[in-house]
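Entry for magnesium ion complex. Fields follow.
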Amino acid sequence: MAVSAPFGEVAAGVDRMVSPAAGASPAARRPLVELSQVDLAYPGGTLAVKDLTLDVAEGELMAVVGPSGCGKSTLMKLVSGLVRPTKGRVAVAGRDVAGPLKIAGMAFQNPTMLPWLTIRQNVMLPLKIVEPFKAEFAAKRKGEFRERADALLATVGLADAGDKRPWQLSGGMLQRASLCRALIHDPKLLLLDEPFAALDQFTREELWAVLQALWMKKRPTVILVTHDLREATFLAGRVVVMTSRPGRVVREQAIPFPYPRTIELTYGNAFGGETLALRGAIFDARGGTTVAQR
Ligand SMILES: Nc1ncnc2c1ncn2[C@@H]1O[C@H](COP(=O)(O)OP(=O)(O)OP(=O)(O)O)[C@@H](O)[C@H]1O
Ligand SMILES: [Mg+2]
């Protein structure tokens, strides 16, 4: 990876079209993430997910949508090893997940930054923790690794934020920095839990393009949780709909548009048809009630 300009390379790589099912040979489609018949009950008894079965292929960009509280963040915690299933199996790269995963980059719903570190230092944290970067951290933290963090920050419009502290940034800026932190160690698996929720529409769409370009270039496996059906349809090759709690998968919808996708696409009828179908599935997943009916 060209450390000084990670997305320069990315941008150069998006002029070719990629079909959502690209790499659909059996080897390329083998699941990187496997959940089979997983139940998760939190202490206190809340059954967050029940009988959750889901495969995510290597290199796939999959979105998860569903009613609030249905267990989407729980799914991310299960895959990342932050919680262990009460029943069933969670495996990544063929191995049962037994603790926090190192091959994963994560950006979660409420970005947590260490307040005593600068934004750049926060973004560089995974390099300090994860091998093989960890071994080189002392030697490279003021050179190559710093440049890598600054290049990522520039990509998301935070070129001037590296020396600031987290409390000096807005919520949306923190969310962008959190995305940089998730990407800094070039993870094979990227877990994004509503990473753009606090952003205005235009910034959000810009970051869709950044994420799409990154995915096309590096092809990490991405699980993206979102409440935004346009976001899911724009980015994902497949969207999974979960039921109300206890969550399980009730629908899988393949999104047929080739990559790279453009914002113009989102205003077309075909795109509208995909989001409408998802909306209907979520309506059913919530039990088919509207707010007015409850
Ligand atoms: N640490 C916890 N302890 C106890 N219950 C929890 C815990 N975390 C989540 N829950 C409960 O598990 C259920 C699923 O929560 P989860 O955060 O996975 O939902 P979600 O689909 O991500 O919701 P949202 O869309 O609002 O983010 C909820 O009822 C929630 O209250
Ligand atoms: Mg959540």
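NOTE: DSSP finds nine helices and ten strands in the chain.
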